[in-house]
Amino acid sequence: MQSNLDSFLHCTTPLVQSQFLPKREIRNLNSLWNPWERDTVEYFTLGDLWNCYDEWSAYGAGVPITLDNGETLVQYYVPEDTESGDGETRDSFSDLLSDDSESDRCDGCSSEGGGSEQDNPWLRSDKLGRRYFQYFERSTPYGRVPLMDKINGLARQFPGLMTLRNVDLSPASWMAVAWYPIYHIPMGRTIKDLSTCFLTYHTLSSSFQDMDVEDDIKSPEKKRKEGESITLPPFGLATYKMQGKRVGLRQLRPGPR
C-alpha cells in the first residue's frame, strides 16, 4: 500500500523531457563523469528542468492524501527555496560544478552568500570540476519570490542556469527544493496532519541517471525506455512538522556523497 509520503514523492519528482546527444559529441564527454560506453546518450538542459517547476510554482503540485479515517483529498504544495528549521541564514543551497569548457567563462563565481573556490579546497580537484554557481537563500520563507521568478532572475547573471546540460555537470552538482502546503481540495476545514513541509535533495548530473537498479530488478517493466522523459527522484529528504500514522518512505536513489 502506497503511503502518503510515497504519494508526495511521486507527485513532486521532476519528469524532464530528454534529447539525444549528437554522436559526434559523445566522445567529448568527461569520461570520469560518464564512464559508460553507449551508442546513444540522452540529456536535458537545466532550462528543461526548471520548466517542470513552472506550473507547480504558480498553482502548486497536487498530492493525493489519505486521512486516518479513510477519507481522501488533494493537498497542494508550492516549491520554494529551501528553509532550514533553525532559522539560520544559510537556508537555500544549490551547487553546480561543470567541466572547464563552461566554467572558464565564470571562474569561481557565486551568487549572493556563496563562497569562493578557495574557501573549499576540495572543489579544486579536476575530478570534481570547476564551480559555476552556488546559491544561499537569505530571505524568510514568507518573504521569498516564487521559485521560477528566482531562477529567471539568477539566470540573467548566470545564463548557464538555463543552458548547461546534465552531461556537462559534475557528480557533485545538486539542488535542494522546499515544499510548503498551501491549500487542499475539498476545502473548508483545518487538518493538522497536513501542515508538514518537505525538503527534497536532487542530483543534477547524468552520472546518477537511471541508477534505480534494485527497482529495475524487481520490476523490469518499469525500466525507462530511450526517448522517455528523465526522472530526478530525490536522494535525500527532510521534513518539518511531520505527524500522523499514514507515512512511510521508500528507498531513495543514490546521490552525491
What do you see in this structure?
- The chain is α+β, with helices and mostly antiparallel strands.
- It has one domain.
- Helices cover 20% and strands 24% of the residues.
- It is built from 7 helices and 11 strands.
- The strands form 3 sheets. Strands 4, 5, 6, 7, 8, 9 and 11 form a 7-stranded antiparallel sheet that branches. The protein has a two-stranded antiparallel sheet with strand order 1-10.
- A hairpin with a 5-residue loop joins strand 4 and strand 5 (72-80).
- It is globular and about 60 Å long.
- The relative contact order is 0.21.
- Residues 83-93, 100-125, 213-224 and 244-257 have low confidence and may be disordered.
Keywords:
DUF789, disordered C terminus, 7 helices, seven-stranded antiparallel β-sheet, alpha+beta, 11 strands, two-stranded antiparallel sheet, 24% strand, 257 residues
Short recap of the structure:
The protein is of the alpha+beta class and 257 residues long. Helices cover 20% and strands 24% of the residues. Strands 4, 5, 6, 7, 8, 9 and 11 form a seven-stranded antiparallel sheet that branches. Strands 1-10 form a two-stranded antiparallel sheet. A two-stranded antiparallel sheet has the order 2-3.
